[in-house]
Amino acid sequence: MLTVFYQTLDMNIPKWQLDGSLIGSNPGLGFRPMPPVENVESTLIWYRASDENYKYWTNELDTFLESEWSPPS
C-alpha cells in the first residue's frame, strides 16, 4: 500500500507548498518559556553567565515543566 503512496511523491520538492499546504504561506512558531513581558517582541534568548541573568529562564522553564510534567494522580 505504501508503495503506491511513495510513487506520488517527488523526492526533490514538497508535494504541498505555500497556500496549498495546511500551514499556508505564513507559518508561525511558538516557544516556551516565554520572554519577559518587557521584552515580549524578542525571540532571542540570551543571558550573561551570572545567577541573576539566567534565573528568569530557569524559573520560567520550571513553571512550564510543572504544568506539563506533573505526576499522575
UniProtKB/TrEMBL annotation:
GO terms for biological process: potassium ion transport; sodium ion transport. The keyword Repressor does not apply. It is found in: Membrane. It is a single-pass type II membrane protein. Keywords: Membrane, Signal-anchor, Transmembrane, Transmembrane helix. GO terms for cellular component: sodium:potassium-exchanging ATPase complex. It comes from the Eukaryota. Belongs to the X(+)/potassium ATPases subunit beta family. This is Uncharacterized protein. It comes from Timema shepardi (Walking stick). The lineage of its organism: Eukaryota, Metazoa, Ecdysozoa, Arthropoda, Hexapoda.
